[in-house]
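REVIEWER CHECKLIST
Item 1: Sequence provided? yes
Item 2: Single chain? yes
Item 3: Sequence as submitted:
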Amino acid sequence: MGFGALLALIAAGFAIAAVVGARSPAGGQRSLARFAERAGLPVPMTSVRALEDSMRRRRTTESAAIAGAAGLSGVLLLTPLGLSPMFPLAVFLPVLLVTTLVTTTSAALHERLSAPSLGMPRVARSRRTTVRDYLAAVPRTLTWVLAAGAAVGGVWVLWELVRGGVARPSLAALAIVVAALALVTSIVLPLLEGRILARPQPVGSELELAWDDALRLAALNGCRQSAAILSIAAVALAVAVAFSGDDNVAGWCFTISVMAQLPLSAVYPAAGAFLPHRLYPHGIHVPVGSTA
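Item 4: Structure as written out by the authors:
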């Protein structure tokens, strides 16, 4: 009942936040100011309103996604899944991450920073960008290292479950499902990133292009962060299966997984980050009087 009440509070709180955020222009202004500071970009005069609206929609969508995930988890809590002592890690967290991944990708595919009128000057790249242009080697590699850990953990749990070597088969089943979900997410991730990077960038200045790249980078990091946390959850559940007995569950695995997730916000900053030098090796041209 305690966790059910918490889920209800989360769902209600974020639902209210989504409604208030959708109606409040000030929220978009504050979010834009924070994002601009983290990205180190001045705001182009021609795109102030579009960027504020984009930030407001982003906050609203994120709040609605969390509220929806909490609500769905509350429903699942009423099923036999709710009997698992690892429900927060094995059910709620995966539901939240998958929901976040879907909403992040959807927003990145449908957002448009600007739409230059016919005959107006446009800025475009001479080549198509790839994930390597936006993400360094460490965050790219870490995704697959964690996915490999989830795969190894899932296979081991499956093997032990088949041979009857686990004390809690229900927990082992959840661990296998989460590991499979982490692997599917990692496999689908390059396809989602390809869709995000294939989206046209109809902009009229280099600064607007840089802002579109900054929003792309935030979306890529958000997707990678969700996939990484999901893999960590899968590994933590495999460890919990290994150390749980008939009369106890290794609850400390949940604490370890949370601690392991904390550095990911620095590895995959999803709320604004400096653009890689390779995207703009000669800097970003900002005409005088073109910024807000």
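Item 5: Key structural point noted by reviewer: Residues 20 and 60 are 8 Å apart (CA to CA).
Item 6: Recommendation: ____
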